[in-house]
Amino acid sequence: MKRRPHRWLQAAVNLAIVVVLLTALSFLPPDTSLKDRQAAGVLKLCVPPSYPPLVTGDPAQPGFDVELVGAVAEQLGLRLLVNTLPSIGSDFNPRNWSLTRGQCDVIAGGLADTVQTRSFLQTIPTSAETGWVGISPTGQLPAAGGTVAVLPGTSGLDRLALSGWLREQQLAVVPTRNAQQFTEALQSGRAQAGITESFVAGALNLGPDQRIFWLPDDRFPHYRMALGMWKGDQTLKTAIASALGELERSGAVDGIESRYYVKQYITLSP
Amino acid sequence: MTSPLPEAPQGPLPAIAISVEKLSAAYGGRTVLDEVTLQIPRGTSFALLGPNGAGKTTLLNILSTLRRPDGGSASVAGADVVRQQTLARRSLGVVFQDSSLDDRLSAWENLEFHGLVYGMAPKLRRERSAAVLALVELEDWRDDIVRSFSGGMRRRLEIARALLHEPQILFLDEPTVGLDAQTRLRIWRYLDEMRRERQLTVLTTTHYIEEVESADTVCIIDHGRIIAEGSPEVLKSRHGSRWLHVVPRDQAALDAIRAQRPDAQLLGQHGLALPADDGAMTDAFLTAFRDRLTEVRFQDPTLESVFLSLTGRQLRDRADGDRDAERAAGRRGGRR
Amino acid sequence: MNTFVMALRGLYGVWLREITRATRDRAQLIGGISRPLIWLLILGVGLNPYFRGEVYGEVRYVIPYTYLQFLFPAVIVLNIMYTSIQFAVSVIWDREFGFLREVLVSPMPRWLILLGKVLGGATVAMLHGGLVLILARFADVTLSLEQTAVALVLMFVLAFGLTSFGVILAARVRSFEGFGVFSNTVILPLYFTSSSVFPLDPALTRAQQAVTYPEWLVFLVQINPITYAVDALRGVLINFNQFPPLWGPLVIVAMAVVFFIIALIDFNRQ
């Protein structure tokens, strides 16, 4: 008597063929970005002049993001080329930073992993975290009718949501363009409190009486900081992500983190 | 009209397996069934005989709840085919005229499907499947895909499937098309056994005479009407006639016979058929022409001749056969 | 109780038959995955350079995802649509070649027969949609187990509705040839007007949508139920919704219920 081995054998074989085929195809590179970088031997990183602790501008201690990408480049066998561009963060609209594909492979030093950022770039979040923080001697924002200085920063946090919320709270806004104006407004008493992004706050030279606190979590979630790559450079992104994973397993990332106190940055500041 | 009931043990089941009362049906204004009334006792074998388009399949469709009657009522195993469909269906096994197997499944899977759909428990399903496969001698093809089966094998599998859930009543619509004599005999023997032991009622529709010779009751149907009903013997003696088939030695003899017997009919090119019910006349004929015949044969009454004398038509003409072959070919073509 | 068990067995039988037939047919399985391959591998990769960023802040295609990621959930829906609606062929097949009668003379009630058949078709369509998930790596979509489970549930309910739709079509189409042409004229327009290959920007108000795209196109996209199915899957797989997140699942469930009821009415009339 002839017997089929099993009624589902044929089905299983068919499915296996399809699954193997698809799995094999899913390893195909969807673009040439990694190959191009490998051919050039260089990984270009664009950072602002200063965004402590992610970018310091100090060659001995270049900053968390710079060291992280440096380690990644080494892992990938590429030479890291840091492009310090003063235009980054000079304007609310990132278009005016004029960052091009030719100049940068990776953008870092103050990118938050928000929907807004991801509209333009694809991101790999790092362990650093950001969000809106308030600064005042009391540790809270003034009551309705008070004035607040705002330094929006450049990391891609939702400014519209912030201004809407401030209107709701009936707080008058004193806009500031840079850290200097912001601290002046606080110190002169023109504003009873200040609001800025956490890393900016950490780098400010504030008096000992000022206290830093997160704005309400439910309205203003904290975001991870991220490395930004161009959309469509998927093979490069995948390679960088896996290199980062490798570095995390080997403990190298922990080392860099602890040197820059990235995780405790807010709590350590005054 | 109704046949006497067999002396069957009176169980809880009704003694009448199928009851049809003034059943009418029409397709687009054309009457297909015209007030048909029938009673089929349990445990009997009942044959509906008639040409294509006589209304046999429509009657079967109504009885198997696939079609609603346009008038009258019918019940199978005591369940009304309109109001108690589920109950009626549970008691039925149906073998359709055209194959209704899934030809992408194996023989076993077709049976398994049937068993599941009839709600049979797994153990019973397996036992019965093995039993009916053995009955139709398809054990060796149990795991083969039905697509590779010949027409006869499909037929056998369908009959096996219809018997799987042990129905009280079995409908066979043109069942033996494509079956070899040996298998047919085996299946009929099994069905007879089931009739005796389990009071299975078998309703066959056919336009093949061979199919019905062994039936308890034959019902001849034409143009949606029952024109005769009874056992084959009764029908033959009542409506059939005896014929004398002869082959004259030469053309002159043939012409002479035709001149003397105007009721003679041509059989092919050289043969003649004469009514032979009147013994004296036949004797006279044979005495007169004894030397001028090369072949003489008596033809006993057949159901074919019964049908002929009742309707004035052949039961199955050439065109029917051609159409059957064409349809079968078309179906095979469509499947590839 | 006993009738319930019997009904369940029947349901299982009808379902099992569909699964057996579909998985045994290698051509059907391979055909099922050729579509995602064309869409993701060929179209997605081919158009990728046109959708990638060149200057930070300047992307025409403003969605927080790469084109491949954006396309990925839509390709799953396309695959489900094809498999589900092609299921009608199996229904026509059963009807034309007599198998339907074998089921109709069984004690199973008609609604249960249809339910079993549609469940079977939906399972197969879900399988075909699920196979696309294997390409997630290629499209750079990372999936958690939970996401995959939720996506499969959505895919199943969607497939259930579309399979019922296929049954409705089958009741109205007589021939196989006619159905082939017909299904393409139904599936492709539905797919292209489902916001599958281009986004309606969520940041824009309704009035602005009409400015970006002609009103008639926006209207077509908005009345197409597949739009919301694609949106629901995007919500689960890449966490991106163009419409309120609840709409998608609601539309999918509504399709399943409404189409099944219509299919049942058709089936009972036969």
Which key terms come to mind for this protein?
heterotrimer; A: 270 residues; alpha/beta; D-Maltodextrin-Binding Protein, domain 2; five-stranded mixed beta sheet; 37% helix; elongated; C: 270 residues; mainly alpha; 11 helices
Q: What coarse outline of chain B follows from CA principal-axis ratios?
A: globular
Total count of strands of chain C: 0
C-alpha Rg of chain C, in Å? 20 Å
User: Could you name the CATH homologous superfamily of the largest domain in chain B?
Assistant: P-loop containing nucleotide triphosphate hydrolases
Distance between the termini of chain B: 48 Å
Low-confidence stretches of chain C: 202-208
What is the string of SSEs of chain B from the N terminus onward?
EEEHEEHEHHHEHEHEEHEHEEHEHH
CATH names the topology of the largest domain in chain B as Rossmann fold
Which word captures the global form of chain C?
elongated
Number of helical segments with 4 or more residues of chain C: 11
Q: Mean pLDDT of chain C, rounded to whole units?
A: 85
Mean pLDDT of chain B: 80
* Structural class assignment of chain B: alpha/beta
Secondary-structure blueprint of this entry?
The complex is a heterotrimer of chains A (270), B (336) and C (270).
Chain A: H1 9-25, H2 33-40, E1 42-47, H3 64-76, E2 79-84, E3 106-112, H4 115-120, E4 121-130, E5 132-136, E6 147-151, H5 159-168, E7 172-175, H6 179-188, E8 193-197, H7 198-203, E9 211-214, E10 223-230, H8 234-250, H9 252-260, H10 265-268
Parallel strand pairs in A: 1-2, 1-3, 6-7, 6-8
Antiparallel strand pairs in A: 3-10, 4-10, 5-8, 5-9
Helix pairs in contact in A: 2-8, 3-8, 3-9
Chain B: E1 16-27, E2 30-41, E3 45-49, H1 56-63, E4 71-76, E5 79-80, H2 85-90, E6 92-95, H3 107-117, H4 122-135, H5 151-164, E7 169-173, H6 181-198, E8 201-206, H7 209-212, E9 217-222, E10 225-230, H8 232-239, E11 243-248, H9 251-260, E12 265-267, E13 271-275, H10 279-289, E14 293-299, H11 303-311, H12 318-335
Parallel strand pairs in B: 3-8, 3-9, 6-7, 7-8
Antiparallel strand pairs in B: 1-2, 1-4, 4-5, 9-10, 11-13, 11-14, 12-13
Helix pairs in contact in B: 3-4, 3-5, 4-5, 8-11
Chain C: H1 2-24, H2 26-51, H3 67-96, H4 99-104, H5 110-132, H6 145-172, H7 176-192, H8 206-212, H9 215-223, H10 225-237, H11 247-269
